[in-house]
């Protein structure tokens, strides 16, 4: 498994990297997952350290967790506990998902755009109705069932997930509603 452990504007020592590798590895081994790579990013805001971990599983699903504390090791421990809780909660589904799917999740490429916020311009009326594109990127859309998409959204901690529905072969969206329920858009 590949680990990428970095810090935003802070130095990450060898001891912390070794600690992250051992602890995160033990959390992932406990649930029998086959991770391919993990990215752990540490940052500091005021007096608090933040840790974000993203783990890519061989089945094609991703698990993400965030933690924060006044000490960097405690921030990682908080993040690792959340990752452990997510994997424990979805262990049965992840194993069932892997049995039903002999091949990894397929992905299709798509363009992703970041648009400028018109409220920041200060003008009352925009000059044109076309939005200003700030950045253009490539993104990958997974081919999943609706249940797998909801699980992937929960594991990644994302508010919305766009996916290709395996059964209907069309693009669908699942999202977290304001009332706490999950919404599903099937055009």
TrEMBL record:
NADP among keywords: no
GO annotation, cellular component aspect: cytosolic small ribosomal subunit
UniProt keywords, alphabetically: Cytoplasm, Translation regulation
GO annotation terms (biological process): negative regulation of translational elongation
Domain Sigma 54 modulation/S30EA ribosomal protein C-terminal: start-end pairs: 130-183
Gene3D superfamilies: Ribosome hibernation promotion factor-like (3.30.160.100), Sigma 54 modulation/S30EA ribosomal protein, C-terminal domain (3.30.505.50)
Stored Pfam families: Ribosom_S30AE_C (PF16321), Ribosomal_S30AE (PF02482)
Coiled coil: none
GO molecular function: ribosomal small subunit binding
Localization (cell): Cytoplasm
This protein's record includes keyword Coiled coil: no
InterPro entries: HPF/YfiA_ribosome-assoc, HPF_long/plastid, RHF-like, RHF/RaiA, Ribosom_S30AE_C, Ribosom_S30AE_C_sf
CDD domains per UniProt: RaiA
Biological function: Required for dimerization of active 70S ribosomes into 100S ribosomes in stationary phase; 100S ribosomes are translationally inactive and sometimes present during exponential growth.
Family per similarity comment: Belongs to the HPF/YfiA ribosome-associated protein family. Long HPF subfamily.
Assembly, per entry: Associates exclusively with 100S ribosomes, which are dimers of 70S ribosomes. Interacts with 100S ribosomes.
PANTHER family for this protein: 30S RIBOSOMAL PROTEIN (PTHR33231)
Protein name as catalogued: Ribosome hibernation promoting factor
